[in-house]
Specification:
Pfam families: HTH_18. GO terms for molecular function: DNA-binding transcription factor activity; sequence-specific DNA binding. Keywords: DNA-binding, Transcription, Transcription regulation. The protein is of the alpha+beta class. The chain has two domains: 214 residues, Sandwich (Jelly Rolls); 99 residues, Arc Repressor Mutant, subunit A (Orthogonal Bundle), CATH 1.10.10.60. Helices cover 40% and strands 27% of the residues. Helix 3 runs antiparallel to helix 4, helix 4 runs antiparallel to helix 7 and helix 5 crosses helix 6. The two termini are 39 Å apart. The model has no long low-confidence stretch (mean pLDDT 84).
Length: 327
Amino acid sequence: MEIISTNYGSYFDVYQRSYPPEFHSCAGYTETHVQLADEVSQGVLSEICFQGVRLHYGQFQTLKSDTIRTTEDFPSVEMVFQLQGRTSEKSSVLNGFSAQQHNLSYRPYCDSLSQFEAGYHHYVGIQCTETFFSRLADDDSPAMGRLLNGLVRKEASALSEHNLTITHALQAQLIRLTQRRESQPLKRLYLEATVLDVLRQQLEQADHNLAKQKTTFPPRDRDKILAVKAILDSDPLATYSLLSLSRLVGLNDYKLKKGFRDLLGTTVFGYLNDLRMEYARQLLLNTDQTIGEIATKLGYSETHHFSAAFKRKFGYLPSQPGSRANQ
């Protein structure tokens, strides 16, 4: 089992890793961390392997966009969670991720091109072997059934046609999963239990969306709801109302309000708030703007209201150490 990553100089020229069958032997786990520190990138890439699973994650900042080609000579199922940053991808099933999006895919092999936009990136990937994933088969899950059909036919497939939104519960669990600790009792058991629960949450969210799409969404309405999402993604600081968004896409406000929640798992303005909080975190990490200036930019008249909203989203105050990249 071999993974080869090649790029154009931002992090490394060629990074080649070889693994034993199932990523690791029956007992224990291995853990590695690679420091990025050069003129165009700063941060850490990490990897933890145990039987059947490769957990890889990174927090890094890039000063310019960079394209990385990844090849893998083995089949796998991989969950990807883009907590911060934006990537585009040319692969057999996925097209990339914006901040706060996730998906899962099966690949009989991998030969993909991923472009990382300049800025701060935080991602988590959980890669499972066919053996590990197959033992979790559940006929009651339509999303799982679709993936298993792809696995049997050796055809690339994705959990969801459109990326899903990372929930607050998922985000909190992913952050705990990837926190570095010098020692942790029963870590191997904790890792596998958490990976299984993260997969459960992904499948439940995908099944929920599939059920809603089948029962409530004509294709034209679904396209209009996704058009609203694209509008919010393109300019999260603009002023919106439900009525103005409805008129822009030609869908009445009731259908937009209900359909957005059913399709994306959150409200229109809940999604917009998540985008704005992510924008604020990027400003904290990548600029020297004060918390008050950022709060004003997001439309808050009182800084403490912004700080409270930021903490509800990320679990810590913008003034706490570590909120800024240079702290």
